[in-house]
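User: Hi! I'm working on a homework problem where we have to compare a predicted structure to a textbook description. Could you give me the structure for the chain below?
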Amino acid sequence: MTGDPAGTGGSASGAASVLKARLVLPALAGLTAVVLLAALAGPVPLPAGGVFSEIISRLPFTGVRSSLTSREAAILWELRMPRIVMAALVGAMLAGAGAAYQGVFRNPLADPYLLGAAAGAALGATLAIAYRGSADIGPLVGVAAFAGALAGVGMAYPLGRAVRGASGTVGLILAGVAVASFLTAIQTFITQSNQQTFRGVYRWLLGSLATSGWKEVRLVVPYVVVSSAVLLAHGRLLDVLSVGDPESQSLGVPATRVRLWVIVAATLGTAAAVAAGGLIGFVGIIVPHSVRMIAGTGYRVVLPLSLLAGGAFLVIADLLARTLISPAELPIGVVTAFFGAPFFAVLLRTGAGDR
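Assistant: Happy to help. Predicted structure tokens:
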């Protein structure tokens, strides 16, 4: 990396930092408010004052006593908060990865599943469910989905780099389509050959955070933190890549190396998110585009805002999934698709895919 590969002055960098500070703090406050709202709502409503006193009582040196009963405290900390935290982590990662993929491929309609992560995860989960011979989703399914997502991208990336007669980004996209189609065909064959596990596969494909606990949260956190840190560190370089590979190279930015690091980080985080929540669609498209409408196109601002807004969006989606038809639950993928499909149609109609 060079000291100032884009050739930008201190004023431009300072303006980006000021804009980031002005927008990130309200976004963080919004995420906090959404988390608190989600903690209150559910089949067993919790009093707002009791939840606030319970949270403050957990902080050191406050001397505040919780007004929640032991049953209400157990509902808050053992059932709701792990699920809310998981929703925030998964949403943040999918939105951040989506924004990063859009920057790497210079395509506003790219999403975290572009290089075969979704198809690989679906195949891994299907194999695990079929191997267990049960429609119930267990820990093995998450591990298999994680490995499958990494394997899918691991197949697509070298294939895309080997495509002749196409630019680096076009070759990767074509390879992702080919690998996804191939893995989906295998997954469909396995599903049709094991009809007794179809319900479990279908439920996983639609996404759910119902089984999330603190153990699952601890497993996902390292991947999300590392992946997010790498993506945020490459925000300025993604801005440079937006002018094209030849221009980036002339400015001293190794486009191929930057693209590889961003894809690896985004894929690692996406694999962890998919392993935790299943295939939750549209988050990586809705959130980055909404952020760009507010904050512009600079990735030094888009990436952190996408992480925060993605977390808030999926917390709201999960809240709707568990309350709309209570005591039953909707798959969270149904909720995100309900908002995402019309949003995607609007993008196509307004020509966003051509910009």
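For your comparison, note the following. Residues 185 and 294 are 40 Å apart (CA to CA). The chain has a mean pLDDT of 86. Good luck with the assignment!
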